[in-house]
Amino acid sequence: MIRCILFDRDGTLGSLGDDRYPATFTPFCPIRPVFEALQARGYTVGILSNQSSIARGTGRGYDFDAEFRSYGADVWRICPHDTADNCNCRKPGSGMLLSVADELAAPLRDCIVVGDRLSDVLCAENVGATGILVLTGKGQQEKEAALAQFPSLTILSRFDEVIPYLDQLEADTTRIP
Predict the structure, then answer these.
(1) What is the model's pLDDT at position 175?
(2) Do the beta carbons of residue 151 and residue 27 sit within 8 Å?
(3) Residue 46 forms beta bridges with which residues?
(4) d(CA 65, CA 61)
(5) pLDDT at position 174, please?
(6) For residue 106, what are the CA distances in angstroms to 31, 61, 110, 114?
């Protein structure tokens, strides 16, 4: 039973005008109504975001907490490291997901990670959660590689399509044969 839906930020919830600066983020569509609709159904909603701009110095001082609160996220984690730091929190590492699951006492099989990169999918799939790829951001470019590793991977055009996806998932589990 799905309990927690975690979204990547950059490329999934919106796009950056300049990859170096988190303040240039523009949502693809209003985020708060999507989060509220999911929460109204009983899901915990959160954000898992690699932010190497912090390690590079161009994202220092940006208030991610205020941004994520403004969307109504229940929980969030940010990896402030760059790729060379080899940390476990930076996706495809699963440290942020494991931290959220532990905080919520949610089994990993009850968590979904929605993102635009194979690293988002791997973050989930490597620990028994479900990964979903969206075709925004880098998703279209990474689709083939993601499907090569996970042939039955769910692919959505945009993050807000998770609502009809969950509708279908719920309908499939309640059908009487």
Answers:
(1) 57
(2) no
(3) 6, 75
(4) 11
(5) 64
(6) 23, 31, 7, 17
Residue-level pLDDT at 1: 87
| The residue to which tokens 């039955």 are assigned | 152
Strand partners, 113: 6, 131
DSSP string covering the chain, please? ---EEEE-SBTTTEEESSTT-GGGEEESS-HHHHHHHHHHTT-EEEEEEE-HHHHHTSSTT--HHHHHHHHT-SEEEEE---GGG--SSSTTS-HHHHHHHHHHT--GGGEEEEESSHHHHHHHHTTT-EEEEESTTTHHHHHHHHHHH-TT-EEESSGGGHHHHHHHHHHHHH---
Is 120 designated active site? no
8 is an active site residue: yes
CATH of 4-174, one of 3.40.50.1000, 3.40.50.300, 3.30.565.10, 3.30.360.10: 3.40.50.1000
Q: Across the 177 residues of the chain, what is the mean pLDDT of every consecutive 10-residue run?
A: 96 94 95 98 97 90 96 97 92 97 97 98 98 98 98 98 93 65
